[in-house]
User: Which sequence fits this backbone?
């Protein structure tokens, strides 16, 4: 079970990395501006404004518009109208007297926080040190960063192979996979001809301790439901928690019995 949770974590971490890369592409940078850091002079002093502008005029030109105090020599440079950021970067980066130059990148604050009332308990998604008090800030999967890009898709089915799933749970029912052919079909008939009769929400493959297989994967141990919630509790629905995916289709496949015991053969059958 923990392997599956880890796998989900990897997915969302990957999403967050993609998110960062895409952000700088899609938001871009402020045209006509560069952040330029000037070297300290050999005598240990900073260049004067005139000296800085003079250095800039030796290449593309430009004017120092703002001097930061927190980083010695760091300035905002406004470029002449006919000079692109790209061209100025090439010139400035190879110029003696300049430590570095970079675009004035636009950035965007995280906005996609769900309204689920228990979201603040989910430190694995977004850790502000809230649980337990004094927890490690940002020891999490950066879920909000991922949600700025994507919150999931109904057409991607997530199979939860566990003790079953409470497919009636108020914070899961809208994200449960449904086999429409069986839902609208005949009882005791394999309507979609897939080898399983009445597999509406998934299937119960558990035979442990002499139990019979059947079409109802309702959770009777509560572990599979918790796993399903991590993967795909409905997000931003003002209810309970949220899953890594706000929207998804969870297929309930049961192989563990009501005492959380099962066997490998039944687990394979779920797959
Ligand atoms: Ca984080
Ligand atoms: Ca069927
Ligand atoms: Ca049927
Ligand atoms: Ca929810």
Assistant:
């Amino acid at each position: 079970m923990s392997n599956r949770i880890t796998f989900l974590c990897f997915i969302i971490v990957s999403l967050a990395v993609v998110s960062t890369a895409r952000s700088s592409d899609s938001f871009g940078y402020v045209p006509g501006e560069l952040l330029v850091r000037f070297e300290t002079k050999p005598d240990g002093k900073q260049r004067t404004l005139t000296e800085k502008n003079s250095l800039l005029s030796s290449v593309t030109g430009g004017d120092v518009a703002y001097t930061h105090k927190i980083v010695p020599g760091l300035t905002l440079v406004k470029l002449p109208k006919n000079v692109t950021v790209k061209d100025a970067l090439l010139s400035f980066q190879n110029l003696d007297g300049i430590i570095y130059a970079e675009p004035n990148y636009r950035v965007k604050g995280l906005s996609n926080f769900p309204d689920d009332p228990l979201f603040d308990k989910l430190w694995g998604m977004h850790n502000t040190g809230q649980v337990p008090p004094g927890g490690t800030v940002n020891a999490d999967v950066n879920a909000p960063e991922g949600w700025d890009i994507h919150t999931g898709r109904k057409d991607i089915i997530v199979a939860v192979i566990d003790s079953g799933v409470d497919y009636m749970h108020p914070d899961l029912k809208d994200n449960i996979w449904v086999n429409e052919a069986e839902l609208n079909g005949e009882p005791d008939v394999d309507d979609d001809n897939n080898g399983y009769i009445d597999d509406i929400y998934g299937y119960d493959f558990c035979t442990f301790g002499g139990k019979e297989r059947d079409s109802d994967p309702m959770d009777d141990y509560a572990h599979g439901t918790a796993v399903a919630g991590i993967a795909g509790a409905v997000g931003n629905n003002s209810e309970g928690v949220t899953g890594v995916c706000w929207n998804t289709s969870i297929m309930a496949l049961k192989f563990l019995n009501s005492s959380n015991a099962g066997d490998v053969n039944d687990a394979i059958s779920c797959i």
In short: Residues 121 and 200 are 32 Å apart (CA to CA).
